[in-house]
Amino acid sequence: MRTPRLAGLGLAATATVALALAGCDGGSGSTTSGASAPASASGSAAASAADPAAVEALTKATSQLGTTSFKVTATSGTGFKLNGAVDPAQGNGTADLSAKGPNAEVTVKTLLAGQDLYLQVPGITKAGTWTHVDVARLPEGANVGLRPGQIDPVNTSNLLNSSTDVRSTGDNSYAGTLDLSKAIGLAGVSQVTIDETGAQAQKVPFTAKLDEQGRLSALTVDIPATNGQAAQPLEVSYTDYGVPVSVTKPAASEVTEAPDSLYTSLGK
Length: 268
Known about the structure:
Blueprint: H1 15-22, H2 43-48, H3 52-63, E1 70-76, E2 80-87, E3 92-100, E4 105-113, E5 116-120, E6 130-133, H4 156-160, E7 167-170, E8 173-178, H5 191-197, E9 204-210, E10 216-221, E11 234-239, E12 255-257, H6 260-265
Parallel strand pairs: 6-12
Antiparallel strand pairs: 1-2, 1-11, 2-3, 3-4, 4-5, 5-6, 7-8, 8-9, 9-10, 10-11
């Protein structure tokens, strides 16, 4: 069984990793219903509820994620965690994604230097080396932390752009609903999750908070319960804007090309 909430990470590249993830539940075993708004709400009604000033504030905040360096941390329950440091202007960054279950904990490391993407994947990458990935072979929506053209591992801008009912809740805080199907590849969310969520995936509640400079500082997405799993919000924090991100390509002697099995596990 593939764990829906974590399947998009592509960590089932080997039998060892697949077995480790088979038991991941992302947190509590009890199932709770998602807090999604009714899926029957019309797009025009949602759009009419939008606060233009709130939309403008969030648009400006997310646009900065494409122009300046920052650090990002994302968690979902106790079973998923991501730490990243990226510089969109230079196309560089690093990210660590961890999936934890009752059987094991697996961590995949990502290093992006321009158009070159390197991974450290348990069961594929030898200790002390990196696996070089042919980006052209990565399927759309496969989230390995970072990739050229998607320097923000949470895909925040695309995600928030799917919202049509943003409103201010005071003190640089905002709320609304968004469409998860518009951001396949979102860290911790896969196509499997979206398919099993059904219509609820199009109206998922979120909250966001900006810092004193109008930059995004926190984002919480209330991902609904699926496949018997407890509903676990995706909680993201953004910090260290403008702090330089140093990335050094590994030496040629420390690099091997990704095997076909890696691309197969990612869906291609």
